[in-house]
Amino acid sequence: MALEIFSTSRLKSFQSIREDEFRLLLKNLHQSSSQSSFTKVEMKSKLSELSFNVIMRMVAGKRYFGVDEADSHEAKLFRDIIKEIFEISGASDPADFIPALRWLNYHSIEKRMKIVHKKADSFMQSLIDENRIQTGKIGPGDDQEEKTRTMIDSMLSLQESEPNYYTDEIIKGMILTLLSAGTDRQLQSGLCHFSSTILLC
Asked: Would the pTM of this model clear 0.90, i.e. be above it?
């Protein structure tokens, strides 16, 4: 799997996606600055959106943040799931400190995690199913390279050769791992401060 997904040639094939997303970010910043002489821009959120868009385009071939995606139902669902995951990931559960709250059917973090897990699982399964259908539509004579092969496409081709190992659960776990590793908040915060410092020098 590592050679199929994380090889240098594979990552290089996604260069156009990264360039395109940076171009869209710069275009957005230019439009914001052209409205008035001085405009405040929250760079942390812009870089976060950039990270999510790059990763999701590499993983599933879709972007979920930006002006064009503001009204999309699928994009809104993805943003809501991500927001909920970040809200509960660092929260502490009062029921851990006061066990009696569990007997009182207290709405704990654990319950919220189960609800978010179901939403995220359903969303990722829909991405896998959609890619599976699109891959099935491409005939043997068609050129798969016209459409940049996503990571889900690669994992589905691995699933065909080893269906017992590369189950949908493994693929969903891989998607979640890529998302969480690629959008680390502390890393983004450091990157934001570093890039802002460079721009001001």
From this structure: no
CATH architecture assigned to 2-137+149-200: Orthogonal Bundle (1.10)
Q: Do the beta carbons of residue 94 and residue 106 sit within 8 Å?
A: yes
Q: What is the DSSP letter of 61?
A: S
Q: Check residue 63 and report its DSSP letter.
A: -
Pick the closest to residue 62 from 147, 171, 180 (CA basis): 147
How many angstroms separate the CA atoms of 145 and 127, rounded? 20
Q: What residue spans of 38-182 are helical by DSSP H?
A: 43-60, 73-89, 94-97, 100-103, 109-137, 151-161, 168-182
CB 150 within 8 A of CB 59: yes
For the chain, what are the domain ranges?
2-137+149-200
C-alpha of 98 from chain center = 35
Chain segment 167-182, per-residue pLDDT in tens? 999 999 988 888 887 7
Q: Which residues of the chain have pLDDT under 50?
A: 146
Q: Count of alpha carbons within 13 Å of 1, Cβ hemisphere only?
A: 16
The pLDDT value given to residue 1: 63
Instruction: Find out whether 81 and 125 touch, Cβ atoms under 8 Å.
Output: no
